[in-house]
Design the sequence.
C-alpha cells in the first residue's frame, strides 16, 4: 500500500480559487502615499494635487481634513461635493477625484527566491508576476509548495496553496490570483 503512493507526484490540496476576490473588477481603494488630483470646476484655487498622509487623510482648502484611505475616488468625490456646497452656492461645486499615483499597493515575496522583499507596483500584479519580480525560485526552492498568505476583513487570515511549476506551464491558471495589497508569497 505504501508503494502505491510513491511516484504519484505532488498531491495538491484543493482550494476554491474562484472564491478569492479580484481587485481588478472593483474601483481602486485608496491607501496611504497614493497621489490624488482633485479638481473643482471653475475654482482653480480649490483644485489640488495631494498625497494621502500615513494617517489616511488629505487636507483641502476650505474643507480641511478628509479621510481618503480605505475609500474609492467616487466616495471622496461625493463627500467633497457635499462639503463644498456649504461654501459655493451655485452649481459649480462639482469636484472630480483622480488617482494619479498608486504608491500604497505593496506585497511581499519571501523564502527561496532570488530577490526576496517587499515590492510595489502601479497596477495589480498576479502571483506569477510577483514571483518573476523576485527573480523566480532559486535552486534551493520547493516551488510546488508555494503559499500565498492573505489577511482580509471578515474572511480573516488564510493560506492559499500555489503550485508554481504547474502555474508556469499553464496547467493551473486559476492559481494565478491577482494580489491584494498586503499579500505575502512564500516559496519554501
Sequence:
Amino acid at each position: 500500500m505504501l508503494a502505491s503512493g510513491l511516484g504519484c507526484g505532488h498531491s495538491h490540496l484543493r482550494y476554491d480559487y474562484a472564491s478569492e476576490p479580484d481587485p481588478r473588477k472593483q474601483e481602486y481603494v485608496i491607501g496611504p502615499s497614493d497621489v490624488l488630483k482633485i479638481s473643482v470646476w471653475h475654482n482653480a484655487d480649490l483644485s489640488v494635487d495631494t498625497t494621502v498622509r500615513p494617517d489616511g487623510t488629505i487636507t483641502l482648502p476650505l474643507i480641511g481634513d478628509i479621510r481618503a484611505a480605505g475609500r474609492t475616488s467616487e466616495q471622496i468625490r461625493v463627500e467633497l461635493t457635499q462639503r463644498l456646497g456649504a461654501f459655493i452656492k451655485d452649481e459649480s461645486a462639482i469636484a472630480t477625484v483622480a488617482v494619479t499615483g498608486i504608491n500604497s499597493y505593496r506585497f511581499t515575496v519571501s523564502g527561496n527566491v532570488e530577490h526576496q522583499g517587499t515590492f510595489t507596483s502601479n497596477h495589480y500584479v498576479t502571483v506569477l508576476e510577483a514571483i518573476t519580480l523576485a527573480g523566480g525560485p532559486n535552486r534551493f526552492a520547493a516551488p510546488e509548495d508555494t503559499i500565498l498568505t492573505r489577511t482580509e476583513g471578515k474572511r480573516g487570515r488564510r493560506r492559499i496553496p500555489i503550485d508554481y511549476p504547474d502555474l508556469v506551464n499553464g496547467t493551473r491558471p486559476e492559481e494565478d490570483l491577482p494580489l491584494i495589497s498586503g499579500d505575502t508569497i512564500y516559496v519554501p
